[in-house]
Amino acid sequence: MTISFPYMESSVVYYKLFEMLGHEVVAPPRPTQKTFKLGVKYAPEFSCFPFKVILGNMIELHEMGVDTIFISGGYGPCRAGYYGPVQKKLLNYIGLDTDVIIFEQVRGGWKDFLNNVRLLKKNASIYRMIKSVYTAYKISVSMDSILKLIHRRRPYARDKSRLSELWDEFEQEYLKVESSRDIERVESRARERIEDLEYDFPPESERLRVGIVGEIYVVMEGSTNNYIEEMLNEMGVEVERSHYLSEYIESHMIPWKKKEYLHILDKGEKYLEIIIGGHAKRSIGHIVDYKERGFDGAVHLKPFGCLPEIISQSMLDRVSQDLNIPILPLSIDEQMGETHTRTRLEAFLDLVRGRKEEQASNKQEK
Ligand code: SF4
């Protein structure tokens, strides 16, 4: 059985998990225009954009000889719960015999869950299974901490592209780890190499910080959003986003960590009282949080066809006025060109900079 999974940033984590459990695993290709075209060709027109990208990626995996694809399930009011079964049917309809295993959380039913655990575990012992899951989680925590550091440092690096190259190199290093000690070693070496670069740090008062919020797939997967984090960093802006894999694991799968993330939902309560699916309420909560933490603006990413984020996007004007924070809404689909994204960001940053300078001069006059 040759297995794989649809690509999403932090694929190293999933790859390592399957590898440590003894699977023959194929690394999925990062989505490109070809992936988007395949997905758009075979998916229903009004399915959400991540559905199309993942479907396109599945077809590419079939072309690479993969016979079994693991994907996560979903629940709640958004369409994520239909992804697996519909994609399975579509692959079948196209005539591809790839098997799709949908890994639902326990609430999807114990029988299916245990059956999937058995498939995932393969011949590994329970001890090895737990150790592998724990190691994969630690890799995600470590990689995210390095990624966050890069998002804060890249705007000031003299050679910004070097940090992107370093990230690729770090990913290769993480692919070789076997234990918690290896992870610590790779992380500390990565921090040293980042610190060793040359930077021009402006005074604290001149730094711009922008939060990126929205639907999890398009926020995390750079190929879908024209690598917006790098773009903002290259324009001299620090970024933080509302989704990182390690935080997703902690807020959804680790009961004693879950409560650390509830305050974000509380912050969105004034605008959205109920959970309407996806991460709509969190998107609003994160904007409130960014404002409270002194960020200068927020970018909201809504995939084409995404029902929850259409709702949250419709509230952005009010949120922006109430909190006095500029918010740039971007709708993401296969036709969003790089130049379009760049132009929208440049115009947005002109506004953000202008407001910051105005606020600083008002302060001085007082
Ligand atoms: S959150 Fe939006 S894009 Fe994501 S699965 Fe749900 S409807 Fe689709």
Structural features, described:
The radius of gyration is 21 Å and the shape is globular. It has helices at 11-20, 33-42, 49-63, 80-94, 110-121, 126-153, 160-174, 180-195, 216-220, 228-234, 245-253, 255-258, 262-268, 280-292, 307-314, 316-323, 338-365; strands at 2-4, 24-25, 68-72, 99-103, 208-214, 237-241, 297-303, 327-332. By secondary structure, it is an alpha/beta fold. Helix 6 runs antiparallel to helix 7 (160-174) and helix 14 packs parallel to helix 15 (307-314). The longest helix is centred in the middle third of the chain and has 28 residues, at 126-153. The chain folds into 3 domains: 2-124, 3-Layer(aba) Sandwich (Rossmann fold); 125-204; 207-366, Rossmann fold, CATH 3.40.50.11900. The structure holds iron/sulfur cluster (SF4).
Name its key features:
single chain; binds iron/sulfur cluster; 3 domains; 366 residues; alpha/beta; 17 helices; Rossmann fold; four-stranded parallel beta sheet; 8 strands
Summarize the structure.
This protein has 366 residues and is an alpha/beta fold. Helix content is 57%, strand content 11%.
Please render the helix and strand layout as text.
Elements: E1 2-4, H1 11-20, E2 24-25, H2 33-42, H3 49-63, E3 68-72, H4 80-94, E4 99-103, H5 110-121, H6 126-153, H7 160-174, H8 180-195, E5 208-214, H9 216-220, H10 228-234, E6 237-241, H11 245-253, H12 255-258, H13 262-268, H14 280-292, E7 297-303, H15 307-314, H16 316-323, E8 327-332, H17 338-365
Parallel strand pairs: 1-2, 1-3, 3-4, 5-6, 5-7, 7-8
